[in-house]
Amino acid sequence: MPAPKPRKPAKRFTVETPSDVGGVRLNKYISNAGICSRREADEFIKMGMVQVNGKVITQMGYKVQPKDEVRYDGQRLAPQKSVYLLLNKPKGFVATSQGGRIKRSVQELIQTAAPYAIPPLGDMGRPVTGLLFFTNDHELRKKISQSQKGLRMLYHAVLDKSFTTADAGKILREQEIFDRIVKLDQVSPIQGGKKNEIGVEVHNIPPSMLIKLFENNGFKIQMLDRVMLGGLTKKDLPRGRWRMLNDKEVNFLRML
User: Fold this and answer.
1) Cα–Cα distance between 36 and 137 in angstroms, integer?
2) CA 105 to chain centre
3) Is 199 helix (H, G, I), strand (E, B) or coil?
4) CATH superfamily of the domain spanning 84-254
5) ∠ CA(150), CA(151), CA(153), 5° rounding?
6) 18-76 maps to which CATH number?
7) Per-residue pLDDT of the chain (256 residues; tens, 9 = 90+)
8) Hey, which of 175, 190, 205, 218 would disulfide with 197, CB 3.0 to 4.6 Å?
9) What share of the chain is helix, strand, coil (3-state, %, to 5)?
10) Angle between helices 138-145 and 38-46 (to 10 degrees)
């Protein structure tokens, strides 16, 4: 009697719920809405602070569909397109990452860029001019701010008096400014400029800290203009104008 043929394994069927089909991951949806980074969104989801269509969602990887209503802490969210913008800031406007209502904010200069506010990366006082980067991409903002090296910045500074080689030797030493140890990368005279004009190269040192550093060394900065930011320049970007970054420029910032 021939041996019975082995049975074929039964087919397994999986039932897909609406959250498994297409859509956008919930943490990415929240991040795109400008609330926080994806990692922070995961924590909010675990804490039960996020609702989809009126139901609290604590499931990691849950996917939001186009017609779903998403709320964070009771507030309805709308996904935002990631924006990467470069402004040549004029004098008299203030940039702050803290938000709030501010007279003559840089937001007035870029209000046509998107139907929602795009925060600047770092602060810049009214007297300071030059390049300022804006993005609502929280992942990129966090990556740049937490980078060990940070963004390379080049400033054109005009001082209240002549700057000598001896002065450069002193100011290039490590110094404590606002409870933080900082060190300039390079200080050099401006070619064809006056003796009180210098170029200052730094990494992730904000203008306010740079101004304070020179004050501590006996100099007052009369004019400070950021002419380079992370490889981005003011080429074809007049004062007060802005432009969107291209994919190549955004990818370069992501590689920092």
Assistant:
1) 9
2) 17
3) strand
4) Pseudouridine synthase (3.30.2350.10)
5) 135
6) 3.10.290.10
7) 455 555 544 433 333 344 444 678 899 888 888 788 888 999 999 999 999 999 999 998 899 887 889 999 888 887 778 899 999 999 999 998 766 678 899 999 999 998 888 889 999 999 999 999 999 888 898 888 888 778 999 999 999 999 999 999 999 999 999 999 999 999 999 999 999 999 999 998 999 999 999 999 999 999 999 999 999 999 999 999 999 999 999 999 988 7
8) 190
9) 20, 30, 50
10) 110
User: Where exactly are the structural domains of the chain?
Assistant: 18-76, 84-254
Q: Contacts by 108-111 with C-beta closer than 8 Å and gap 24+? A: 109/240, 109/242, 110/85, 110/134, 110/242
The predicted model scores a pTM of 0.76
Place of tokens 């996020």: 50
Convert 195-227 to b/e letters by CB count within 10 Å (16 or more is b): ebbbbbebbbbbbbebbbbbeeeebebeebbbe
Kindly list the distances between the CA atom of residue 34 and the CA atoms of 24, 199, 236, in Å, as whole numbers in the listed order.
15, 36, 30
Q: How far is Cα 72 from Cα 190, in angstroms, rounded to an integer?
A: 51
User: In whole angstroms, what is the distance from residue 135 CA to residue 141 CA?
Assistant: 7
Answer yes or no: are the C-beta atoms of 187 and 198 closer than 8 Å: yes
